[in-house]
Amino acid sequence: MDLGLACSFRTTGGDRLGPALAQAGRAAEDLGFASWWAAGDREVAADRSHDPTLGLQCVARETTVIRLGYSGDLLSTEVAAVRAKRIASLDWFGRGRVELGLDLARPPAALADPFRPVDDHVGLAVDRLAAMRQLWTQRRATHEGEHVSFAGAIALPKPVGDRVPATHLRATTPDVLERYVAACGAPHGWLAWLETPGELVAGVEALTQVLGEAADDVRRTWFVRAADLAASRDAVAGLQVRVDEVVAYVDHVPTPTELTELAGLAGLVA
């Protein structure tokens, strides 16, 4: 089982963000962390931290193999072409290591456009993702959807290999998952964000309810608070479901010392 890291892009103790991220990125990779995830849009709005894509670009420049994840993109709050360019630019900095996590729950009021109320935020998010996929993979992209339409669009840069980055979903309800699967196919991964073991199991059961045996091909990632890391890793063995990765969430950019302590708790270092 892999160990990953997630954090909000803000510092403590007066450190500058750029140098703090550079040091932490190098330390995380040296210690053997499998992934580095930015907190999602929902968390950024709550704790007023810096933009996830910009923070991940700093980590990307200092690392070579660690996977780079965006844990909670609220696609219903931003134009598809703008988000597609941001993710593709991040993937260019990361040399093809970016993975995208989608948050299909209703956006918080702080991120909603008061002049353009959205009745169906799931439909809007799914339509925008479909449009982004066209922009990422087609030389002259065309998309005709309920909310987004264009023809002959040129979008640069594209993700490395003109590919669609591996796409994960934050755990959601069966009806929302069914809508996503009908439009986009099965997700690459399933993200349980700060859930209890019981909630984690229920979420995987919902995944199986919708996908059947194909749910076994979906990567399962459990995000836990850093203070709960050791207990959560121990708990995985007793769960009735498979977990592929446990990710320790820190509400700030961790120092190399903090990362070494987390790695010790997880058994990465003696």
UniProtKB/TrEMBL annotation:
Q: Does the keyword Methyltransferase apply?
A: no
A Pfam family annotated for this chain is Bac_luciferase
For this UniProt entry, which segments traverse the membrane?
none
Which BP terms in the Gene Ontology apply to this protein? alkanesulfonate catabolic process
UniProt keyword terms in alphabetical order: Flavoprotein, FMN, Monooxygenase, Oxidoreductase
MF-aspect GO terms: alkanesulfonate monooxygenase activity
Q: What is this protein called?
A: Alkanesulfonate monooxygenase SsuD/methylene tetrahydromethanopterin reductase-like flavin-dependent oxidoreductase (Luciferase family)
Where does this protein come from, organism-wise? Nocardioides soli
